[in-house]
Design brief:
- There is one protein chain.
- The protein is α/β, with parallel strands linked by helices.
- It has one domain: CBS-domain (Roll), CATH 3.10.580.
- The chain contains 7 helices and 7 strands; from the N terminus they run E-E-H-E-E-H-H-H-H-E-H-E-E-H.
- The strands form 2 sheets. The protein has a 4-stranded mixed beta sheet with strand order 1-7-6-5. A 3-stranded mixed beta sheet has the order 2-3-4.
- The longest helix has 16 residues.
- The protein is elongated, with a radius of gyration of 21 Å.
- The protein starts with 10 loop residues before the first strand and ends in an 11-residue tail after the last helix.
């Protein structure tokens, strides 16, 4: 399996529902609901919704946590601080900063009222280099990224474009299959 290429296990982007980065917040919620219903009905392998730009290129994934973060106006500022200084800030400092910037102090209804003006492009997190592999990479590179980042899926690039996703569940399934097919070797007895 170590010589297997990422493209052999990736799922092409056409297998996933898409939404435009220009779609509204409510369209994002509806898209996530549709993906969840399809998954629960057994009609989709995952709840993933891909986000495309105006030219149709994939620029990210949409998740329920993205939607919740979009409701909080100061969350991105706090999150940026957390990423930039995360080794130096203790939780108490971060909590006091959240209090200062009033994260989650507005009633949910007030936050929901301003959601009509939010577009997906305003809150979607673009894939980071650690979340990407190349279609011709060997699986050891993907293994490393899955383990290091604890990602559920990685974006697969080919020729500079995102062409698919490789899901950890598919990789794990292949690992189990390989283990079941491999003969078990007896450990060599050591002389006493």
């Amino acid at each position: 399996m170590e010589r297997m290429k990422v493209r052999e296990l990736m799922r092409p982007i056409d297998e996933f529902p898409r939404i435009s980065s220009g779609a509204t917040f409510m369209e994002a919620v509806e898209s996530l609901d549709s993906a969840d219903l399809a998954f629960r009905a057994g009609n989709a392998p995952e709840r993933i919704v891909l986000v495309s730009d105006e030219r149709g290129r994939i620029v990210g994934k949409l998740s329920p946590i993205d939607v919740v973060k979009a409701l909080e106006p100061n969350f991105n500022y706090i999150n940026t601080l957390k990423i930039g200084f995360h080794r130096h800030l203790v939780q108490a400092s971060l909590d006091s900063m959240k209090e200062l910037y009033r994260v989650w102090h507005n009633p949910l209804l007030d936050l929901w009222q301003r959601a009509n003006s939010i577009r997906i492009r305003d809150f979607i997190k673009r894939p980071q280099p650690a979340q990407m592999v190349h279609a011709d990479d060997t699986m050891d590179n993907a293994f490393h990224r899955f383990v290091e980042g604890r990602y559920g899926s990685l974006f697969v690039r080919d020729g500079g474009e995102i062409v698919g996703l490789i899901r950890f569940s598919d990789v794990y399934g292949k690992i189990k299959e390989a283990m079941r097919l491999a003969p078990i070797r007896e450990a060599a007895a050591t002389p006493a």
